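Subject: Interface between my chains keeps coming out wrong

I've been trying for a while to get a sensible model of this assembly. When I model each chain on its own everything looks fine, but I need the whole thing in one frame so I can look at the contacts. Pasting all components below, labels as-is. Any help appreciated, I'm running out of ideas.
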Amino acid sequence: MQAALPSTGLERGSAPSALAVARLMLERDLRLAFRKASQLVQPLAFFAMVTTLFPLAITPELSRLRHIASGVLWAAALLASLLALEFLFRDDAQDGTLEQYALSGRALTGLLSAKTAAHWLLTGLPLALVAPIAAVALGVPGRALPGILASVTLGTVTLSLLGAIGAALTLGVRRAGALLSLLTLPLAIPVLIFGAHATQLAIRGKPYGAPLTLLAALAVFGMTLAPLAAAAAVRINLE
Amino acid sequence: MAWTWFHRLASPPHVYRIAGRLTPWFAWPAAILLIAGLIGGLWLAPPDYQQGDAYRIMYVHAPSAWLSLMVYTVMAVAGGIGLIWRMKVAHAVAAAAAPIGASFTLATLVTGSLWGKPMWGTYWQWDPRLTSELLLFFLYLGYMGLRAAFEDLQRADRVSAVLAVVGVINVPIIHYSVVWWNSLHQGPSVMYLGKPTMPPSMLVPLLIMFLGFTLFFGAVLLMRLRAEVLNRERAARWVSEAIGGVPSGRWVGEEIGA
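Reply #2:
Try treating it as a single job with all components included. I did that and got this:
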């Protein structure tokens, strides 16, 4: 059943292409996010804060921190991206926008893919850019930074996709924080393993292509299947 | 029609009856096999030349581990059927199966760590199998937590079914990434058991236990399914007829209200 789109005012007469719609959604989400910049900064500040906890809790010696840096960075990145998930669908669900998406006659998978992409640009990519700085603070040598940047960039793609599933599943749950972590973290374990391993290899100055390739494989796998699951969950929760 | 049996499974009273009739066919063979397997495993099988008698915990540990995975698959398949054909009874199967699977997973973890103490010298080793079993336990907890988070039963059914399907796709990925992680960080310190050379006197009781545990799961699932169906259909007339009593005032009230 193809519902007509009478009042979108995009291009009168012809329905916009899926790509154009995706671009519009991306622009909209980015614009909205930049108007509430504090939401953007919070996960990054959280990431920096968690990274700071480890030197304080374990040791300030850089030579020892270097050994645990990959674990610290990835655990912090995982927690920070979890924190950011709350913003993914919440506002759109509350003001009914999500419902309109579901009713628009457009493939919900495509719309949610665009939303997830926006979410990654707003949280995953900044995390990936901040991670090398945090790594330097943990005593990681400069030659490891490209590897860290690449692995966190790829890893956060999968984290955003898994998070979209988790956030969609818990749309109808009022205080979903703990439940969302319990749902998402076990699924994110492969990202943690391969990401931390790539980072570890990069820090030791060894070739890290293999785990990076696996991270990329997980990201591609997630891109193909995660929007389907997220769309199914959104539809159920909107019923 | 060949599919009549399938369509009839959509009817709760029919499922309630069938499940009741099938239960003894699972329960009695399970009881006999479990007793036979325990006698075979704990008395008749010889002690292991390396592990002594400690290996005998395998007769509980290995079947539990097998069921912890199988029950998750049953849950996901039932959830998928419920999503695709909108079959309420399939969701009831998934709801009934989840706590059983979580229990088997917990049993695997406990017996595994008890086995680890004499073999590894420690209760917990970050062994790939124990670790991925632990993650499976978290997946069960997440599933049950999500199910419990919704007031509306239908929504709980369908949302948790999506999670079960997502989870079942991820279980092999998680398992192999954990195996890979472990093989990188530490060498395999202990061989689990000399699998290819296990003599028949050890192997046969193990196979009996596998079958016995599986049938036991079937019996418990059917019993829990009956309870689940009764609870879900408590407002329906057939329930008060099936349990053979005068319907209580609350149920009648609900029926009128509905």
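Reply #3:
Confirming on my end. The interface with chain B takes residues 165, 169-170, 172-173, 176, 179, 182-183, 185-187, 189-190, 193-194, 197, 218, 225, 229, 232-233, 236-237, 239 of chain A (CB under 8 Å).
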